[in-house]
Amino acid sequence: MGKEEEAATTLLEETLEKAGGCGVIDGGLATQLEIHGASFDDPLWSAVCLINDPNLIKRVHLEYLEAGSDILVTSSYQATIPGFLSRGLSMQEAEALLEKSVRLAIDARDEFWSAVNKNAENGYNRALVAASVGSYGAYLADGSEYSGIYGQNIDVTKLKDFHRRRLQVLAGASPDILAFETIPSRLETQAIVELLEEENVHIPSWICFSSVDGKHASSGECFEECLNVINKSTKVAIVGINCAPPLYVDGLIRKFKKLTDKLIAVYPNSGEIWDGKAKIWLPPQCSKDSDFGSLALRWRDSGAKLIGGCCRTSPGTIRDISKAIKGKP
Ligand SMILES: C[S+](C)CC[C@H](N)C(=O)O
Ligand SMILES: N[C@@H](CCS)C(=O)O
Ligand SMILES: [Zn+2]
Questions:
Q1: 22 among the known binding-site residues?
Q2: Torsion angle of alpha carbons 199, 201, 204, 205, nearest 10°?
């Protein structure tokens, strides 16, 4: 491991240690921006906010810090270079917006930390910034991050080409972690793992998958196939589940524990289901299980080292998780 990689890994380990062995990730970013009035009926989804209202993004980051997050995930989930170019922005403007997504989170973290750091009693930790890298399906804006159905012509090379420049720009903005989110398939996992190697990325990554049945990746493939690809990579420090119903999480942590030695992160959504065509959240198939405090305790006991929330979870959700697993803030 090189010096840069070692320092980044130490920072992650220290953050987990200060959090008492299990750290708190923030909650849904896009859906919390919507709570504040943002509207994302747009192929760029929440990335429009980077163009229209970046201050609102910083405000939501601050809300999650105040709620007890040890990790902030940036607003770059659906921020892509081709997405911005098709909006008429230049390459330079597109790259600047990606950098801005990391800057907004770093600024919020630094501002919050300098305000609370003076009082050790308040129980806050200095948060890490994880640069979100949404799947190719997020860019397609058709809900295919929950199916992995990307069309017949897609292969590892095309997926690497799609992810490459954004990854370079985000990594260049110096986040503490790279957060690949809502990854649906073994193919995209392979592309990410190869890309991290080819680009010689020194920032630790997480790769998180959704699941629509609680047993398999969203593509229907076995998690064993996906995790076998990840286990060979020293660039990926954390694997896990995001934007899947809370009901599936405990079983998936137990499954992952058998398949990998990597740290496990879980940040499920509220249990509601995204209708990619209508672009609305549908009611949960099972009852909406919203007691994230007691769920978080169970997930921690099953082996999760990072716990938070995804779409339709809120600062209130993160406060409940933080209180349950850290007894603070
Ligand atoms: C995590 S989903 C709710 C994000 C939005 C989706 N990629 C779309 O554009 O429809
Ligand atoms: N980090 C993204 C994930 C969407 S699935 C968000 O919270 O908006
Ligand atoms: Zn989500």
A1: no
A2: -20
CA distances to 40, 74, 149, 158, 208 from 141, in Å: 11, 18, 12, 17, 18
Q: Residue 71 in contact with residue 24, Cβ under 8 Å? A: yes
- Does the C-beta of 311 come closer than 6 Å to ligand 2? yes
On the question of a cis peptide bond just before residue 329, with omega within 30 degrees of 0, the verdict is yes
The sign of the torsion formed by the CA atoms of 225, 227, 230, 231 equals: negative
The phi and psi torsions of 227 (rounded to 5 degrees) equal -70, -30
- Which residue, among 298, 299, 290, has the nearest Cα to 317 in the 3D structure? 290
- Interface TM-score (ipTM) > 0.85: yes
Domain of 166, CATH number, reads 3.20.20.330
Q: How far is CA 129 from the centre of its chain?
A: 10
49 known member of a binding site:
no
Query: Is 143 a pocket residue for ligand 1 (Cβ < 6 Å)?
Result: yes
Residue 148: the pLDDT is 97
DSSP letter for 16, please: H
Q: Specify the pTM.
A: 0.97
Structure tokens at 284: 């949960």
The domain containing residue 44 runs over which residues? Answer: 3-326
> Which atom in ligand 2 lies closest to the alpha carbon of residue 182?
5
In this predicted model, what pLDDT tens digit does every residue of 234-284 receive, in sequence order? 999 999 999 999 999 999 999 999 999 999 999 999 999 999 999 999 999
Residue the block writes with tokens 């933080």 = 322
Q: Domain total for the chain?
A: 1
Give the tokens for residue 186.
């073994």
Rounded CA-CA distance 244/229 in Å is 21
